[in-house]
Design a protein that fits this description.
- The complex is a heterodimer of chains A (494) and B (264).
- With 494 residues, chain A is α+β, with helices and mostly antiparallel strands.
- Chain A contains 17 helices and 13 strands.
- In chain A, strands 1, 3, 7, 8, 11 and 13 form a 6-stranded mixed sheet that branches.
- Chain A is flat and about 105 Å long.
- Chain B is α/β, with parallel strands linked by helices.
- Chain B has one domain: Rossmann fold.
- Classes of the chains: A alpha+beta (494), B alpha/beta (264).
- The interface between A and B is medium-sized, with 21 and 36 residues.
Chain lengths: 494, 264
């Protein structure tokens, strides 16, 4: 029987090993083989969605991803062959010696799973290298965002002129006001830029804008306001359009009427656009920017959230931890069932991440820091409850005995022998938890739980990487400081 | 005088730790209890001040049955028995002084001590006790900062605070090296001789037993198997000792280090 087990391995890898009594080895090989076969077929059929036959799928995926498909097939075949060789080697074992199979057998399986894993997780190193420059802009802004932390009040010098789109009476030149800057456009009527059926841009009427009475030799930005009142800075080829005034404060610039979407029926009467030239001068001293102040206040909110959650967590966890300590609850079946119930609930609650609790809490009490506090508190109670109860279980019975022996009452024994033993772990775990809670509250805002995470995500979505960078810096510094402080306090306390 | 009569202890898991043990201890004796680990020495010592509730039998302390005492009078009885332990059993986080003061818990009004407050007299006593064991300068250190020998001396000081009539010492030197073992037993001997405190001490080194004991009882499997006077023990050979004690008996140090062991 042993001699011919390899025949079963020809049928299916692992079968021969099972037949000859190496059941665990065989089952492992069989499971590994079937799993990788299933994963391979799944990936192949994704590569060849229109094929219906197995051969068709293989042919198509060989065309599309030759190296991946080839490698997987070779490794599958190699695994099969090694399975047979392994069976033969196991069968030819001398008397009194332990059967040794092939190590390469399992090495090939690991390699196979790695190749499949590489493809399934869509690892694309060349793209990562090629597109590194894309990451540079946001990365730079995040790494050094401090330009956005300060701002100045501004004085704006601007003038504008009307442009008519489509039919109607062309607007005349604006009337100049003495002492104010002045612009006029030529022509004052035209069509705006459009997209054709293929999505290609078709430039609108080119207008020439003349300006005078501006600050000389200064950068002047061109803005546009469409008939429904949306205002934007004009771009040409992706770059903002601006022009330098001459020494007399004059300029001339050409621009096409920009692309704008006006919903049908949104405007009654003629479509009047405005083109505007504007110079901005910072005045007054530097001051902290709005995002900076917002982030600071949210950061304070975050730390307070973490503190509140920790305090509330401690308050609830202390009584519960006694119910979850074996040495307190043992003795009666009621005690032990409470013990097991508490342990079970704590384990379940703890295994659900605070961010999930936050999602639930946001539905419950609405967006804001309160939801975050609820989420963190729930998780803290379960974690601290478990840690505390383990501290209670771990107390040394010796001192209790010694204090009892002096003739102390029960209460005296608790004060002198039980509590002193629990102070250190309680303080240590509580500070550790505060540390975790502040860390967690920075991200809990991302699901609406208040705190700095909330504004961080908002800035990322607005592509305001500098403001996001300020938030990231604050989080990093806070976490680092907290880490140090909590380690320091724990060191002193214990 | 302490009388132990037909003492039996059966634990809830069915183990019989003590079987019908009877003996008596005169005031001022240095009684050593010998026996293998698991022979019932610790159980016996803890039954005397009812840290462990005896199953059957009586313990008569100066005419009062300890086993019948209610919690109030038990508290008074426990004050008479100072206790020291193999693992010292200090509260590691508290200061040496506070550990020593804990010895007064049987005397002070409970309400005050709950806030870790004691009166002037107690502080003065603690100072005295620490001076006696030579640790006065360590008073404000935390117990865990002390070495093993020092911790055991704090244990003795704590027991002294009870103004005990008896000291129960459960393997007081088993966690210490030979030199420290003699130092600790030396303190106990001095208390025994100078202040007339009865000592009941479990030990398992033959030479220490021979050196310090005024009387010996031997336990084996929870039963009293040996009782001998000071002279009996001094005459005892290693072979006889092992017969009572079991094969694991051993000497702690070369005889030259020890005074008073003639036959070693």
């Amino acid at each position: 029987m042993l001699k011919f087990a390899w025949i079963f391995s020809i049928l299916l890898p692992g079968l021969g090993q099972i037949v000859m009594g190496q059941v665990r080895r065989g089952l492992f090989a069989l499971t590994g083989f079937l799993t990788s076969l299933a994963m391979a077929y799944w990936r192949f059929s994704l590569l060849a969605p229109r094929e219906t036959t197995i051969l068709g799928v293989l042919r198509r995926s060989l065309e599309r991803r030759p190296s991946f498909t080839f490698l997987v097939l070779i490794l599958l075949a190699l695994f099969w062959i090694l399975g047979i060789l392994d069976t033969i080697k196991l069968a030819h074992v001398g008397p009194g010696r332990k059967a040794r199979g092939l190590i390469s057998f399992f090495f090939v399986l690991s390699l196979l799973l790695f190749v499949l894993g590489w493809q399934i997780s869509e690892i694309d190193v060349p793209r990562m290298v090629k597109d590194f420059n894309k990451a540079m802009t946001p990365l730079n802004r995040v790494l050094w965002p401090w330009k956005a932390a300060v701002t100045r009040d501004t004085r704006v010098l601007s003038a504008r002129a009307e442009i008519l789109e489509g039919e109607g009476n062309p607007p005349g030149k604006p009337v100049p006001k003495p002492g104010n800057p002045y612009v006029y456009a030529e022509p004052t009527v035209g069509v705006s830029s459009k997209l054709d059926e293929k999505g290609q841009p078709v430039p609108g009427t080119i207008i020439t804008l003349h300006g005078s009475g501006f600050e000389p030799n200064t950068k002047t930005d061109i803005w546009w306001e469409d008939p429904i009142g949306s205002r934007f800075q004009v771009r040409i080829g992706g770059e903002y359009l601006s022009v330098q005034t001459d020494p007399e404060g004059k300029f001339t610039v050409k621009l096409p009427i920009p692309y704008s979407i006006i919903p049908p029926g949104a405007v009654k009467g003629p479509l009047i656009h405005y083109v505007e030239a504007q110079q901005v001068f910072p005045i007054g001293p530097l001051k902290l920017s709005t995002p900076f102040l917002e982030i600071v206040s949210r950061m304070v909110e975050t730390i307070v959230m973490g503190l509140m959650a920790t305090v509330l967590g401690i308050v609830f966890a202390i009584p519960l931890s006694f119910l979850a300590a074996r040495n307190i609850m043992h003795g009666s079946w009621i005690g032990m069932s409470i013990y097991y119930l508490m342990r079970f609930i704590m384990n379940v609650v703890r295994s659900i991440e605070p961010i999930i609790w936050a999602v639930i809490a946001v539905v419950w009490v609405g967006l804001g820091p309160f939801a975050g506090v609820i989420a963190l508190t729930v998780h803290s109670i379960a974690s601290l409850g478990k840690l505390y109860s383990e501290a209670i279980e771990g107390i040394d019975h010796g001192p209790i005995e010694a204090v009892q022996a002096t003739g102390a009452t029960k209460l005296q024994t608790i004060m002198f022998a039980v509590i002193p033993q629990m102070v250190s772990p309680f303080i240590s775990f509580s500070i550790y938890r505060w540390d975790i809670n502040v860390r967690m509250s920075t991200i809990i805002g991302m699901v609406g739980g208040g705190g700095v995470g909330f504004v961080l995500l908002q800035y990322v979505r607005l592509l305001d990487y500098q403001a996001a960078g300020i938030a990231v810096w604050f989080i990093a510094v806070t976490v680092a400081v907290l880490d140090y402080v909590s380690a320091e306090i724990r060191e002193r306390m214990i | 005088m302490l009388e132990v009569q037909h003492l039996t202890k059966v634990y809830s898991d069915g183990t019989a730790a003590l079987k019908d043990v009877s003996f008596s201890v005169q005031d001022g004796e240095f009684l050593v209890v010998i026996g293998l680990s698991g022979a019932g020495k610790s159980t016996l010592l803890r039954c005397i001040n009812r840290l462990i509730e005896p199953t059957e039998g009586k313990i008569i302390w100066n005419g009062v049955d300890v086993t019948k005492a209610d919690s109030k009078s038990l508290r008074k009885i426990r004050r008479d028995f100072g206790m020291i332990f193999q693992q010292f059993n200090l509260v590691q986080r508290l200061s040496v002084q506070m550990n020593v003061l804990a010895g007064r818990l049987g005397y002070v009004p409970p309400a005050m001590s709950l806030l870790y407050r004691f009166n002037e007299e107690d502080y003065r006593m603690a100072e005295e006790a620490l001076r006696k064991v030579g640790l006065l300068e360590m008073a404000y250190k935390r117990a865990r900062e002390l070495s093993g020998g020092q911790q055991q001396r704090v244990g003795i000081a704590r027991a002294l605070m009870q103004q005990p009539k008896v000291i129960l010492a459960d393997e007081p030197v088993a966690s210490l090296d030979p030199v420290l073992a003699h130092s600790i037993l030396g303190y106990l001997e001095r208390l025994n001789k100078e202040e007339g405190i009865t000592v009941i001490c479990s030990l398992h080194y033959l030479d220490l037993v021979q050196r310090y004991a005024s009387r010996v009882i031997g336990l084996r499997g929870g039963q009293l198997v040996y009782e001998g006077s000071r002279e009996d023990i001094r005459r005892m050979t290693d072979a006889q000792f092992k017969e009572v004690y079991g094969e694991e008996a051993e000497r702690i140090a070369p005889p030259s280090l020890l005074g008073g062991t003639k036959d070693a």
